[in-house]
Amino acid sequence: MTQPDLFGESFARAGVAILRGFALTDDIALVAAIDAIVAEAPFRHMMVPGGGRMSVAMTNAGIGWVADTRGYRYDRADPLSGQLWPDMPPIFVDLAHRAAREAGFDFSPDGCLINRYEPGAKMGLHQDINEGDYSAPIVSVSLGLPATFQFGGLKRGDPVEKITLHHGDVVVWGGPARKSFHGVLTLKAGHHAIGGHRYNLTFRKVL
Ligand code: MD6
Ligand code: FE
User: Fold this and answer.
1) CATH assignment of 16-204, among 1.50.10.10, 2.60.120.590, 3.30.470.10, 3.30.70.660
2) Residue 98's Cα: distance from chain center in Å?
3) Dist. CA 129 → ligand 2 center (Å)
4) Does residue 138 have its Cβ closer than 6 Å to ligand 1?
């Protein structure tokens, strides 16, 4: 679908819906829910199999995405504490369900990866291919500072399109786009009411 938007960009990719400002009315509650999760399971910079440390800090609710030098996996337990990841708060599940419905999916997430980008942090091109059910979409919520998101194709070398994701934007990503390469360019410093960083919530159906 093509969606001209408030920010002068348009974006067309089968299987991708960009819901501008969809999370705005819940932003304060979402940040409070993130704070409560982080009090139990703090943000940390995971190591990746190549030996590097991710510049994006991460935590999880529900079934958690974990990286270490052995690879990537989903785990019910936080390897830092040995405890289960915090439950997904109802406001998370409800928002993801409503956004997916807007895009034509019936979606009940069982995991949420929470990313925190400080200025200078970035995420290289990758595919989300550790989940069990590719018929389910991924719902992605952006909060705080804007970031430039890159959407590629199904092969790493395919051309990428850039799109700016702002506070409150929700992207629903499924069907033919589900295994597209994507990444986030280096976050620029700035000011935002929620703080000088960006949060991204990605909701998945892992099992
Ligand atoms: C981010 N997002 O926006 C990182 N993955 O910070 C992702 O990696 C992502 O937004 C799959 C689907 C949507 C996403
Ligand atoms: Fe991803």
Assistant:
1) 2.60.120.590
2) 16
3) 9
4) yes
